């Protein structure tokens, strides 16, 4: 019998993002519980040591106490952390509902080498995030992470006290009693992709506002953008690149990616207040789908 597949890396990074919000990197359960239940009315939570580098270049040189990216998967019979029948999961990622017979793949837990992560507690997380907006921005992998985070917390909220709203390319889960929203904004390339003459798709390497206008006023922004930049040939999402008034048909994808991320980073530095918003950029994850090559 084949060994159950371990969770994909994007699930780990989701936990890292959550850990960054609630200071799990200290790896001290007593501090975690005491700090997390305190209700904060100001922005002091932004300045707590968490080992996460801001996009802004203002860094104070603090050393990270625990590298959560270095560790191993361990089987934990107390997992999973949420029911696979969570109603907020997309039909394409609900393995159990799609007929997968085994369930051991849900029981893998990430264990860093240098510390032990406290078990996620939805109520304490919501208390920490009271009156705050959390937004995940990116592609379908980030949509998966949004679904997972919502599923992690929704079970402790009464049915009548949670709702989902939609606005343009964004969706938001609202925990009404906590005045907290967990949001997702579809922007797989971060910069703008528009329709040009003859219905051609144009990727603007130096324009971002049409996407970024949805990111303002958020307390925690988690970004990702990678896979769509690697698409080529029939999988490509654009016909031309455009920078200023110059249009190109061919650019090295990594050069284009760098230009796009530079536009994004400039927007972050010029438009976000470090005293109000925490910014996290995730690294690249494995694909979460399979391509079938029919012979």
Automatic annotation (TrEMBL):
GO molecular function: O-acetyltransferase activity
Pfam families: PC-Esterase, PMR5N
Record keywords: Membrane, Signal, Signal-anchor, Transmembrane, Transmembrane helix
Keyword Ligase attached: no
Signal peptide: 1-24
Subcellular location: Membrane
Membrane topology: Single-pass membrane protein
Domain Trichome birefringence-like C-terminal: 117-289
Keyword Glycosyltransferase in record: no
Superkingdom to which the source organism belongs: Eukaryota
Regions that span the bilayer: none
One CC-aspect GO term: membrane
UniProt cross-references to InterPro entries, sorted A to Z: TBL, TBL_C, TBL_N
Domain (Trichome birefringence-like N-terminal) ranges: 64-116
Similarity section: Belongs to the PC-esterase family. TBL subfamily.
Name the UniProt record assigns to this protein: Trichome birefringence-like N-terminal domain-containing protein
Taxonomic lineage from the root: Eukaryota, Viridiplantae, Streptophyta, Embryophyta, Tracheophyta
């Amino acid at each position: 019998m084949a060994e159950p597949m371990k969770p994909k890396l994007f699930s780990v990074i989701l936990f890292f993002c959550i850990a960054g919000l609630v200071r799990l990197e200290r790896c001290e359960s007593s501090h975690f519980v005491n700090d997390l239940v305190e209700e904060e009315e100001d922005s002091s939570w932004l300045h707590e040591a968490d080992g996460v580098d801001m996009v802004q270049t203002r860094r104070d040189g603090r050393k990270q106490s625990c590298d959560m990216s270095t560790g191993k998967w361990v089987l934990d019979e107390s997992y999973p952390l949420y029911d696979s029948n969570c109603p907020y999961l997309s039909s394409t990622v609900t393995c159990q509902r799609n007929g997968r017979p085994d369930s051991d793949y849900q029981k893998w837990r990430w264990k860093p080498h240098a510390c032990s992560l406290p078990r996620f507690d939805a109520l304490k997380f919501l208390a920490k995030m009271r009156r705050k907006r959390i937004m995940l921005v990116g592609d379908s992998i980030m949509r998966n992470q949004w679904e997972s985070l919502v599923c992690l917390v929704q079970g402790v909220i009464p049915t009548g006290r949670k709702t989902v709203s939609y606005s343009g390319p964004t969706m938001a889960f609202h925990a009404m009693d906590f005045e907290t929203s967990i949001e997702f904004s579809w922007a797989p390339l971060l910069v703008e992709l528009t329709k040009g003459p003859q219905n051609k798709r144009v990727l603007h390497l130096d324009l971002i506002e049409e996407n970024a206008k949805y990111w303002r006023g958020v307390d925690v922004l988690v970004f990702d953008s990678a896979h769509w930049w690697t698409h080529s040939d029939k999988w490509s999402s654009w016909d031309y690149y455009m920078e200023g008034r110059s249009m190109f048909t061919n650019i090295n994808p990594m050069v284009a990616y760098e230009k796009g991320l530079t536009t994004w980073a400039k927007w972050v530095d010029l438009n976000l207040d470090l005293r109000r918003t925490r910014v996290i950029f995730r690294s690249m994850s494995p694909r979460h789908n399979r391509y079938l090559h029919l012979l």
